[in-house]
Please model this.
Amino acid sequence: MRTGQSHLFIPGPTNIPEAVRQAMNVPMQDMRAPDFGELTLDLFIGLKRVLRTEKGQAMIFPGSGTGAWEAAITNTLNPGDKVLMSRYGQFSTLWVEMAKRLGLDVEVIDVAWGAGVPVKEISRRLGRDTNDEIKAVFVTHNETATGVTSNIKAVRNALDENFHDALLFVDGVSSIGSLEFRMDEWEVDLIVAGSQKGLMLPAGFGVLGVSEKALEASKTSTMRRAFFEFTDMMNMNADGYFPYTPPTQLLHGLKKSLERIEEEGLDQVVARHFRLAEGVRRGIAAWDMNLVAEHHTLYSDTVSAVRVPANVDARDVIRIAYEDFNTSFGSGLGPLGGKVFRIGHIGDLNEAMCLTALSVAEIVLNRAGAQIQFGSGVAAAQTWFSTETRSRPRVKLAAE
Model:
């Protein structure tokens, strides 16, 4: 029998604040009622603030981040269009597979899992594309499988320096509402997010930020679509409605989540994620273990992917934590299976929760065969948390 609280330290779905859970505990209401827009219209405004866009359009599609991926592609591109994509983790790989299934001509740049988006190679390929055959460049902002955050601004610079007109697509599922992101400033055309990460909600809807340029492209896109049609969504959203049944309870939760982000301040949300992540990273370093991310400029502030010693199976670490200590860590995905476990530090989180994650991890790592000095990682994180204020996040260099 399990007692006490279960601990969730995966990179999503994330912990749901109690105030958000209570906000969702409402009776079902009429989604066609004349006052339904009083709930929904402010949500689009709030999402635009989180995406840092004044020019773009925010949309909510019932489903998930994967559904929002499909909406982004099918509304703006045409069958056979050439697109440039990079694979450096599980989720960038899945995006490539979706693009292929939808009939795009995908030019793939493969780099090691643990590296970031290959900006120089993207620039080289854009430079030789003198006929502008590449219609879009796809970037995974935060690769959840490897704990790597890539530099979106650097990719925008590569497009501009080569005078290239391709659309810029960004997967922000595990970055929006947690990491620095500026849609207008970085001239992102399509940004995709999900409800279950930085927005601190259950899974249930995908978020899209769509630029004016992308909306213009949607007018001539010939890809087949029905449920994910931008025009239907925008026409109904204008008055606060949806072309099909929306997840009403989640919309109530989103209202409360956006209020919490506004109250804390988006800059402070970003700074808090850095502060908590750095504490976790210092704890991992004290164990003499490495992260999958190849360089400190790539470290993600929402998830740390930890390489276990060669004599340890990371699956045992995860199993022991779950079965014996009511604690969930993220598993190693794809080729990292058994070699890596992940500590999620995203969303509704504080210092005490991070210390709990490190404390439990020390116990289960030892049980799984690692030689960890008890308290070493916790002490390193305590030192960081006790001496550092909620400082501004570091400036990341271009992810090469």
Observations:
- Residues 8 and 250 are 20 Å apart (CA to CA).
- The two ends are 49 Å apart (CA to CA).
- The chain has 13 helices and 13 strands.
